[in-house]
Fold this sequence. Notes:
Two copies of one chain form a homodimer.
Chain A: E1 5-7, E2 16-19, H1 21-30, E3 38-42, E4 47-57, E5 60-70, E6 77-83, H2 89-100, E7 104-108, H3 121-136, E8 144-145, H4 151-157, E9 160-162, E10 168-169, E11 180-185, H5 193-201, E12 205-208, H6 216-230
Parallel strand pairs in A: 1-3, 6-7, 6-11, 7-8, 9-11, 9-12, 10-12
Antiparallel strand pairs in A: 2-5, 3-4, 4-5
Amino acid sequence: MSLALFLVDSLPAGSRYTLDGPEGHHAADVARLRVGEELLLGDGAGGTARAVVDAAGRGRLELSIVERWYREPADPRLVVAQGIAKGDRGELAVQAMTEAGVDEIVPWVATRSVAVWRDDKPLQRWRSTAREAAKQARRAWLPVVSAPSATAAVAARATFVLDGDAPSRLSTVDLPASGDIVLVVGPEGGIAPEELAAFRESGAVPVRLGETVLRTSTAGVAAVAVLSARLGRW
Amino acid sequence: MSLALFLVDSLPAGSRYTLDGPEGHHAADVARLRVGEELLLGDGAGGTARAVVDAAGRGRLELSIVERWYREPADPRLVVAQGIAKGDRGELAVQAMTEAGVDEIVPWVATRSVAVWRDDKPLQRWRSTAREAAKQARRAWLPVVSAPSATAAVAARATFVLDGDAPSRLSTVDLPASGDIVLVVGPEGGIAPEELAAFRESGAVPVRLGETVLRTSTAGVAAVAVLSARLGRW
Lengths: 234, 234
């Protein structure tokens, strides 16, 4: 098993660290790490350290840093504009895409999005889901979950749009060598024709992923997997 | 939107068909298809037909077949031996892999499987999940969900084992040109060292998928996506 990863605001410059607050509570009281056991500390911005527990108290651990490393940010970046989905499908999508290494998720307010985000709570749920999934996956970089965007704003960034009727395949289409690769995934009801037209007009290329119909919570992670393999990340 | 697909035991030889039983109920009373509307009929064994509603009654539709086509079975076949997972993670894995086109799922009774299948019900749930996901995805072939298998039986068939520490990558490893490609995915707790040894001894190749830790419900669909792209299925 991989060591558990706990997120910190910044990694210490020296060799000692006190893990307290919510992550300290989780490490000391829930995961119940004991003296001599190891864990990972991550700043969610490329920095990771392996540490050993010197002392364990209620809600806090005293740690010695054993080694540390830094990962450069990815280039090209993988961005998915995810059509807002109802129920827990949006969170399942965020969770799986985060595990698979997506760099940014843009909640897309699509015509056919059944769920309407009336306040800040759904966005906070996506963000906390991404954070937890990134810890679970031991990611060095937390994915960005952007503010919800309307079609025009998504179209301005879109590189590819998943569309089952597209002649091009995501598995063979030319990929940008750097910058953002922004892929649009529709909500449960799919992408409306006028939305598809807007994406095309902005220069986005419709692409398909196989011949079967992928649910909105499956399409994004499948696309990230294919792109990660093609880009040599995996 | 794609037409809805309903599963039938066998497609009719002629041009008329009466859809009744559970699928007829679903089509007539739940989806509420009306005269003149179209649907797909699939036998789950390669055959699909497009049909139009001639008459709608309670729990049944009278249909005319408009066109029909047949898809050959896939070769190589994609098989995932999925470590039995607790809660709804197993069903999420089955659902996503089915949408992505897996040909067979083998429930693997792993050392670290927390859930124990004491009766036939969990297998029946995996099978009905696969059936519903195949309809949703408009698949021509239903995936096979095999009986639960112990490690020795899985090892006898395994081609690859997902293992985060493996030197080989699933995205670049040589693939068999035909027959079954059987990939082993561990349960939540991962694959035990003695299991990994058994798989290696049987000739299975450990492979990794990226550098992050994928949850058991994400690993299978990500692997199927990468293999589908590499095999030219997608």
